[in-house]
Amino acid sequence: MEVIDVDSHVTVTKGLEGTPFHVNILPDGGHGFEFNKTGLRFAPPNGMIPRGGKEAIPARSFWDLDRRLEDLDRDGIDRQVLIFHTAHVFYGADREVAIKTARKYNDGLAEMIATCKAPSRYLGAAPLPMQDPAAAADEAKRAVKELHMPVVVIGTNVRGRNLDMPEFEPFFARINELNVPIIIHSDGLTAYQTHPAAGERTGWLNRTGRVFTVRNVEEPAPAYPIWWMLTHPFEHMIAITRIIYSGMLDRFPNLKFIFEEGNVGYALYLFDRLEEGWEFGEMLNGPRIHLSGPKKHPLDYLEHFHWAVESEDSLIGEAIKRWGAERVLFSSDYPHSDTPWPKSVAEMKKALYGFSATDVAKVMHDNAARLLHL
Q: The pTM is what?
C-alpha cells in the first residue's frame, strides 16, 4: 500500500535571493530564517533536534530533501506534501513585499523538488499573500498551472480577518475555478500568527520567551503550553463554522478543505453543535433566518471538509464510523519535534485496526490522491 503524508514541513533554501526572506544554514545542518522581523531557529547542538526520549531528528532534514528520503523510507512514507512551518508567514508584511516574496518562495520550493534525487516523492503546497486576495488568487493559479503544485495552503485567519469576509471572495472564486484543494493550516506556535483565538486567555502572549529564546538567567518553572493545546482546534472551529454559515460553499461548490494540525476529534462535537445552531437560529428568528447564509444543514456540506490526522487522536475511528473514511487523511507533521516519526505509519495502522483494507487505503493514500488529482 502506498502512503501519502499530507502534512510535513520544509525550510526553503533556494530562490529567495533579492528578497528580505533570509535563511542561514549552519555546518551541522542547523538553520534559522527571518522574514518581516520575525523568525525561527532550528539550531540544536550537533544539528540534531532533541525530542524528550524519542529519537532525535537531523535538522538537515528540514531543508535537505535528499537526506530526508532516508527518514521517509524508514517510516514507510512514499510521498510527502511540503508545507512551510507556518501558513501565516507573509500576512504581516508590506503588501508588495509579501507578493514578491511569496512568488520567489514558491519558485524556490518548486526548484528544490525538481532538483532533488527523487522529485516524484514530493508535492509542493504554495503559501500565499492573503492580505491581497486578488494577488493571492493570481499566485495560486501560477503555482498550480506553471509550478505544478497540487494544493495551496492558507491560515485560519488573515491578520484577524475571518476567511468568510467579503474581501476574500476573489480568492475563493479563483480556487473554485482551479478546482484544487486548500490546506487550512493553523499556527499554534509562531509569532507570524498575530490573532490567535482566545490568545489573551490561553497564555499566548507569554509563550515567546520560553519557546524561541535561550536565556542565561534563572526562570520560574515553565507553564504547560495551554496556548498550543487550544489554539489549533479553536482556530479550526471558527474557520469551519464561518465558512459554512456564510453560504460560501453554495457560491463556490468546488471548494475542498483539508484542515491540518488539529486532528479530527473536535470536529465530531463541532458538527453536532452546528446542527443545533441551525435549530436555535430558527427558534430565535423564525424561518427568515434562512433568507441569508447556507441553503442546507451544516452536515450536508461535510463533503467539502477533510482532516489530516496523526495517530494519537483517539477519535479517528469514531470519525470514520460516523462519517466514512473519506474525511480522514494520514499525516506525520515531520520533521517537527512532536511527530510520531519513525512510527507514523505503523501507529496510524494501529489506530485503524479493525477497519476494512479499503478504508485503511483511503486514509493512507486514496483520499489524498483523489483530492490532489494524482
A: 0.95
